[in-house]
TrEMBL record, chain A:
Name listed for the protein in its UniProt record: FAD-dependent oxidoreductase
Superkingdom classification of source: Bacteria
Family: Belongs to the HdrA family.
Organism: Parasulfuritortus cantonensis
Matching Pfam families: FAD_oxidored (PF12831), Fer4_9 (PF13187), FlpD (PF02662)
Residues annotated as transmembrane: none
Key words, A-Z: 4Fe-4S, FAD, Flavoprotein, Iron, Iron-sulfur, Metal-binding, Oxidoreductase
GO MF terms, alphabetically ordered: 4 iron, 4 sulfur cluster binding; metal ion binding; oxidoreductase activity
Domain 4Fe-4S ferredoxin-type positions: 534-563, 564-593
Gene3D superfamilies for the chain: 3.30.70.20, NAD(P)-binding Rossmann-like Domain (3.40.50.720)
Keyword RNA-binding attached: no
From TrEMBL, chain B:
Gene3D superfamilies tied to this protein: FAD/NAD(P)-binding domain (3.50.50.60)
Organism expressing this protein natively: Parasulfuritortus cantonensis
GO molecular function, a single term: 4 iron, 4 sulfur cluster binding
Tree of life domain: Bacteria
Keywords: 4Fe-4S, Iron, Iron-sulfur, Metal-binding, Oxidoreductase
Protein name, per record: CoB--CoM heterodisulfide reductase iron-sulfur subunit A family protein
InterPro entries assigned: FAD/NAD-bd_sf, HdrA-like
Amino acid sequence: MADKHAAYICTGCELGTRLDAAALVKTATKDGKIALVREHAFLCSADGVAMIKNDIDNEAVTHVAICACSRRAKTEAFNFPTVAMSRGNLREGVIWIRPDTDEARETTQEMAEDYVRMACAEVKAMKVPEGNQNTGTSKTLLVVGGGMSGMTAAVEASKAGYKVVLVEKTGALGGMAAKLWKRIPNREPFKAPMDNGVADLVAQIDADANIKVYLNAVVAKTAGAPGRFKADIAVESGAVSTEDVGAIIQASGFTPYDVNKLSHLGGGQANVVDQLGLEALAKAANGGPIKRADGKEVKSVVFVQCAGQRDTSGEHLSYCSGHCCATSVKQAMYFKDANPDVDTVVLYTDLRMPGNNEDFYRAAQNKGVIFSKGVVSGVSTSGDGCKVQFKDLILNEDTSADADLVVLATGMVPTTGPDLDALSEANRVAEGSDEKAAVAKEQVIQMMSTSVLNLDYRQGPDMPQFKHGFNDSHFICFPYETRRTAIYAAGPTRRPMDIAQATEDATGAAMKAIQAMENAGLGKAAHPRAGDLSFPTARLEGCTQCKRCTVECPFGAIDEDEKRFPLFNESRCRRCGTCMGACPVRVISFENYSVNTVGAQIKAVDIPDEFSEKPRVLILACENDAYPALDMAGMNRNEYDPFMRVIPVRCLGSVNTIWITDALNSGFDGVMLMGCKHGDQYQCHFVKGSELGRYRMSKVYDTLKGMNLETERLMDLEVAITDVDTLPKKINEYAAKIQEMGMSPFKGL
Amino acid sequence: MTSVVATNQTILVVGGGIAGMTAALEAAETGKQVVLVEKNPYLGGRTVQLYRYFPKMCHPSCGLEINLRRLKANPRIQVLTMAEVTGITGDKGNYSVTVKLAPRYVNESCTACGECNKAATSEVADAFNYNLGKVKAAYLPANMAYPQRYVIDGSVVGTAEGEAIKAACKYGAVDLDMKEEVVTLNAGAIVWATGWQPYDAAKITPYRYGEFKNVITNVEFERLADPHGPTGGKIVRPSDGKEAKNVAFIQCAGSRDENHLRHCSRFCCMASLKQTRYVQEAYGDEGKSTVYYIDIRAIDRFEDFYQEVKANPNVSFVKSKVARISEDTNGDPRLWGVNTEGYVRYSEPHDLVVLAVGMEPSVKNVAIPAEVMGDSSGFVMADPSNAGIFGAGCATNALDVNRAVQSATAAALRAIQVVNQVARAEA
């Protein structure tokens, strides 16, 4: 079917009185070269929408440019999924940010005409995405780790009707939870430790035909993409089975921080155990009086909280593991429940028992557990027990306590596989042939042996880690979003957590994994562009094999084929466009977002000659934060300079430097980039996109120098969605700076 | 009349805050049909009334924008605002639910052009800003309000002002004849995500909230810090507009207290630590904060944030449950109590006191029109007897945003388990 383009000019919301609509129609027809141009007084009304629908159905219109309000407004009305659509933002982007004065009328009209030209140019360069044909159809979930988190994920996914492959590296399911005598209560009355729940879950799994369990097994290799992963599962016996799976949950858990590193707290001494050590003693006691390893019944016990945690010296863990206060309370109850006469003292700085655990804390106080706010300075052997030296923070004095047994509440160390940054550094060094390289090679081998997923991805064998080595995302609103599509972390590998939270977490992870499999099967993107059917394609005949796309993709979506060309795994792709921005030869594009859809808009802008005193500044604004901020500036009628021309981009990472050099070459006087915060506290929805975009832009300054242009003609601005009032000010400041610098010498060339 | 398309494979999500939106979106993006019911005229709940999030100091509207875009792009979710569930009958796999819709007096023809707002003359309390300010009787609740549609306060219906507002709308969007409606819909499973409300600080009588103007709550403080709040982002005290440069934060205001909320509300320590940053941001080294606390519960990696705040010389910590507050003649609230570290009595004046009030469920389990198990605070407890009704977010526990989202994601799966079972049975 031949493309047929239509443009619609709305004159509602004062667009008709503030702007010369007839001129806009002419602009769309003449400059936009659009065959069918219509004007409507209320385009988003049922009548206006019916008009557009009629053109699509009966006039064979395939491409629609809506020149009305912002793309963020009236989305229910302007919803035509079968055609390509662009939105010329005449309302929030033009009349609402300009004063309604006679002097402003001319420049406001010029702004509107440019946005009409841009909307026409953009839509003509767009295609309706047809969806990825290379879909996988596996609806089986792979769960790595058979502890509480992994078992829960498996059971919950099965309940929703999905098959599960559960891989556990030890000989039994249960993980750390199975080592607990009892667990912290997760329901009222929150007064006593309760059964650890492992046996029940194991029984459910054993009875569930949907769940296939591999014990004594590891994932030796994971290849493929969402919906079509192939996981090689190696069993201790040597057998390797390949399972077709659609999504993966990594529930690889944690190990307790090595107590031997805490010699200053008595770590390593005979009568000093960690919390897991105490669980073993409690299990052995089986509800009776707890005995030490030497067989002596414990009559006094001191719990040392935050042992090697919340450490400010840099030697131990700096974070808090969250569960350990409640765990010590639970363990103190083990003693009190067996024998109320046992002295149980908990030494803490902040007792952290959120939610209903407060009741559990009260119950312990009622059972006679003593809580003292104090900082332990040392644990030594004394008689056949221990002496705990501490500073009592309430009495403000140094004191000590004798105990038969000391329990150190150590923290959780996540099992996440190698740190990819360290691995890539080691890999780099290992390329040499000297002694250093040999050491690095050894290090690479060692790190690889700790891999959990052994992903056959160019970007490394596991999920990238975040702070403190956890697999968590740094998003607050989107905690599950990792940088490996359809692979989700659950439980303490993600963040320190207790069983109650881990089971909730695992259920949520199962939700995300199921969703990822379903969408992969339909060729649709995962978060945050969920449902997006566009995907990147590359004209490989133009590719120079520079590898930038494979290196920069924040989601590890691109491998290399045997000829060293980029190999796109569409269902791993999150559609941010970072690859497109990275490509120096511009061979990567999406059907509806490409070097051309943006480039055509840049070219469509009318550039007045250098004597007009009408500069033009291109703004490339992240559609997630900066563009909404500009929109809301309009809603609040915060005015800004009329010489700005804004183009929303999927992410700063998708900005190709050609747009900037083309704009400046064609006579734009300045370019502003607006993207999200990057770094540790990133706000970029594609995690690394804005950082990579900025890095790339820093190289453009050299190009500018080569063009004999002031580097100030390119401005990089970090924008948050709330900069509704400050952003217009910054734009105006930049406009003033451009005026000061004078017009670009490239006009009219 | 509002029409709702729903079957016994539809998932009903009650509450359109971040938990409800998350549950609805996760289910819809998995291919399920969802009806999302929200009692406010806009989605986003209490999170959008926050200025910044801890620990990243980023803005809730950033995530809301993504969630709204997901919603706009998803044809499977139907949103009902100004709506409340009044009745639930039936059972897991086949519920019949009645929903009461309050009149907005504005229909979907609204373009959010704002002409009605210009025509309005009277003012009503600004609920979005916890009634700290006023808005015109025709208003858009917030910049990010979705549906992006004005609301007309019922007080102008039948008045000349109402007619003027109606006349100002060129698009026939103002409909003053709109009446309360009741719709009945079918659902296979229900996610109950009605969130939380701040504990009524007036009940903590020694703190004299409501009586001393310069004693406010943590949620109100969020609005003061927000540039789009009632003070334009200026941290000033309500009594006289004086810059509040010496701010006290009282932790566990109502929480961890058997006379009030017996549970720990979890988020309030981090919220106050974050709010000390607002004071610092506003006044630099002149902005002093004092946190009166029992235990600082900065769990997991939030500890980093606590350490950063602790290292700030402008923030001090006093381990104490404040006994009472009095008011000096200049309007300064004065805090009385004992610092338990060393047992020192204090009597300290501050410019402003922020009560870190805790969370209680906004709809206690007993108020849900169905048999739902709850704990002693009224939070929804997971229990097989709840059948196809699943709690999510702060309806289930005192949670921070991150954990509320996790909880909602889990609840979405539980609901999907039910409707998938229905689908299999009917296949």
